[in-house]
Specification:
Helix 3 packs across helix 4. 28% of the residues lie in helices and 25% in strands. The radius of gyration is 19 Å and the shape is globular. Strands 1, 2, 3, 4, 5, 12 and 13 form a 7-stranded mixed beta sheet that branches. The protein has a 6-stranded parallel beta sheet with strand order 8-7-6-9-10-11, with helices on both faces. It starts with 9 loop residues before the first strand and ends with a strand. It has 303 residues and is an alpha/beta fold.
Length: 303
């Protein structure tokens, strides 16, 4: 493909790395409900400003870009260069390796938004993360524990318990029916829960949440998107709130991004990079993502 030519209001980014997301897997499979073809996929990218005719960002500035139609309505991050609206771009400054930086933008945006906008998490509360070994689940655990929240994370595999125990206060092996165990751990249910597995476990997650607690539907690792024959009076426990979260670049404050990156640099927190790939290994990368072989974030380096 030729290098894109930006117009005023757009930013040309030399992509150094991009994270893998199941949204791109859904798009490739044809089950996503938006987007046009032909299309370069990729809902996020990290790199350096190569051109910005409108002057919103200086050439050479380190930036991330994410969402806002990226990889669906216009070409995305699976490339050496991507051209995106300036509103999709956030600047930062760091000496961290691109493999680390490339894992952060969409993972952080989704985790931060789910914790703040979604469940409105506060110090002293308990948080259930359904799908704890995913990159968003691991980022959620980091952010929640920084707020002095008690974290309960789930995994379907006993072999991942020891790894997950490094990031959560309690680990629950998920057989699809964990509500009673979670309620026993919390004396009546968690204050908040983030559902990352999908519609197939949502009802059980609601049952694991206390009266007046909040469940935020954020992810669909199981690829089950909808609830057939949804009858709210039967489905929703009394007094448990159900909400959802899906954000974009404008939902990630630049200060939150920079503070997170700075904390990674000082070793205060870590970024769960599962594996890195070259751009010409994208088929292998998608195969690993599709097979659930990644514990954490897959990152592709373009150089």
């Amino acid at each position: 493909m030729p290098t894109p030519k930006p117009t005023p209001g757009q930013v040309l980014i030399r992509v150094e790395a991009f994270g893998l997301n199941r949204s791109e897997l859904h798009f490739r499979r044809g089950v996503a409900d938006n987007g046009t073809f032909p299309r370069i996929p990729g809902i996020e990218a990290t790199g350096v400003v190569a051109d910005c005719p409108g002057g919103e960002f200086e050439v050479g500035t380190q930036v991330v870009t994410l969402m806002g139609g990226m990889g669906r309505e216009f070409d995305g991050g699976y490339a050496e260069y991507t051209c995106v609206p300036a509103s999709n771009v956030i600047a930062f400054d760091s000496d961290l390796p691109w493999a680390t930086l490339g894992a952060i933008p969409e993972m952080l945006q989704t985790a931060y938004g789910s914790l703040t906008t979604g469940v409105d998490g506060h110090k002293g509360q308990t948080l259930l993360i359904r799908g704890g070994t995913s990159s968003i689940g691991l980022a959620l655990a980091v952010l929640a524990r920084r707020r002095d929240m008690r974290v309960i994370s789930t995994t379907r595999q006993e072999s991942r318990r020891e790894f997950l125990e490094q990031h959560a206060d309690h680990v629950v092996i998920d057989d699809g029916d964990i509500a009673d165990e979670v309620r026993a751990l919390t004396d009546g249910g968690v204050d908040g829960a983030v559902e990352l597995v999908g519609a197939n476990t949502l009802r059980d997650t609601l049952r694991a949440t206390r009266t007046h607690g909040v469940v935020c539907f954020t992810g669909m690792l199981s690829d089950q998107w909808t609830i057939p024959d949804f009858y709210p009076m039967d489905y929703l426990p009394n007094g448990v709130r159900l909400t959802a979260y899906g954000g974009s670049a404008t939902d990630l404050p630049p200060a939150v991004l920079q503070d997170f990156i700075d904390d990674v640099a000082t070793g205060t927190i870590s970024v769960p990079v599962a594996k890195t790939y070259r751009l010409d290994e994208i088929v292998e990368a998608h195969t690993d993502m599709e097979n659930g072989a990644l514990t954490g974030k897959g990152v592709v380096l373009t150089r």
